[in-house]
Specification:
disordered N terminus; elongated; 352 residues; 2 domains; Methylamine Dehydrogenase, Chain H; five-stranded mixed sheet; 31 strands; mainly beta; 50% strand
């Protein structure tokens, strides 16, 4: 406010003077703590206090996180098992029959480290090396696959067990195809930097419409559960979209007990877990769907060693990307950009 006072006109200065009492009341309170508010763990207790000028006597203090009241007793604040990420603490101080409000930015991280998950290879199937894979999803034995690169972006429907092809739909330039998911009779496709996605009839792959992005400027991966479409955009966020109109409703933020993480790419949801390819890495993150906690990592580097490279191979970009779950077989199907194989694997959490 001081910069405004010295640089604005005298008329506006007079207006500020009229509001001076309100500003004084806000500045009469401050949060004091030795806690690093950029690294607070779930299920922890942190100490902070609210200090005031002598002219104010505090009657009560109430602390809220995402509009939910937290337990704050004797300068101890209990952080529950909430979504991790960047948040704001809203502190309401009642003093001398008046309400004073403070806000403190905090970053909540997991209270447990990510663990290494394991897998076994069950089988492998042929995969066209011309496919710069961006999305995979099963419906029965039909595998839907989307590819990227401008001028080489397609959607395919085929049976990987028999090799039978069903439909193919091209995405016209200048769009770069990204992740897909299926909801009812629609196939939903993202584009990378086109700021929009497209919808298709599931059975024919004929285009049926498009939709615009909002706060998420890029499209990377897609998946869904019973209630939402989940969209990654290269940031630490995974967005939850309305299945009806594909508008952004909310988001989760991804991280461990150390930091937040970006670059979730292709997505697959099984139960309460999101399995996310990591951009330009041969690994998959296992994410708690409700909190954003990265609870596990799968290292698929050994699979890449089984790939036969041909003229379509790109040392910089032919990386792991593409994960789909086959519900009846209870197995995952893993491939990569320009890979000549799709691997069927079974995934195991670490033993306790």
């Amino acid at each position: 406010m001081k910069l405004l006072i010295y640089t604005f006109s005298l008329a506006f200065l007079a207006l500020l003077a009229g509001c001076g009492a309100s500003q004084d009341k806000k500045s009469a309170f401050k949060i004091k703590s030795k806690v690093n508010f950029n690294s607070i763990q779930q299920n922890s207790s942190i100490e902070f206090r609210v200090e005031s000028n002598k002219q104010y006597k505090m009657d009560s203090i109430h602390v809220f996180l995402n509009q939910k009241k937290l337990v704050y007793i004797e300068n101890q604040l209990q952080i529950p098992d909430v979504q991790i990420g960047n948040h704001s603490l809203d502190v309401k101080v009642y003093a001398s029959n008046e309400l004073h409000e403070l806000r403190k930015k905090i970053r909540i991280l997991s209270d447990k480290p990510a663990k290494l998950w394991d897998y076994e290879v069950l089988a492998s199937y042929d995969h066209d090396t011309n496919k710069y894979t961006q999305g995979l999803e099963f419906v029965g034995d039909t595998l839907y696959e989307s590819t990227g690169q401008v001028g080489n972006s397609y959607i395919f429907a085929y049976n990987p067990f028999t090799g039978e092809s069903f439909q193919k739909q091209e995405l016209q330039p200048p769009f770069f195809g990204e992740g897909i998911t299926l909801w009812d009779n629609r196939l939903i496709q993202l584009t990378w930097k086109g700021s929009k996605g497209f919808t298709y009839d599931k059975n024919t792959l004929k285009p049926t419409g498009d939709f615009s992005y909002n706060k998420s400027k890029e499209g990377w991966g897609l998946s869904h559960d019973q209630n939402y479409i989940y969209k990654s955009d290269g940031t630490e966020k995974i967005w939850k979209l309305s299945p009806e109109n594909l508008e952004e409703q909310s988001f989760i933020q991804l991280g461990t007990n150390k930091s937040l993480f970006k670059n979730a790419n292709e997505l697959e949801i099984v139960g309460d877990k999101i399995f996310a390819n990591v951009y330009l890495k041969e690994s998959v993150m296992v994410i708690e769907k409700n909190t954003g906690v990265i609870e596990g990592i799968l290292n698929f580097a050994e699979l890449k060693k089984e790939i036969t490279k041909d003229e379509n191979w790109d040392e910089n970009n032919s990386v792991l990307n593409g994960i789909a779950y086959h519900n009846r077989r209870k197995s995952f199907f893993i491939t990569g950009k320009n890979w000549n194989k799709i691997f069927e694997v079974r995934i195991y959490p670490p033993s306790e």
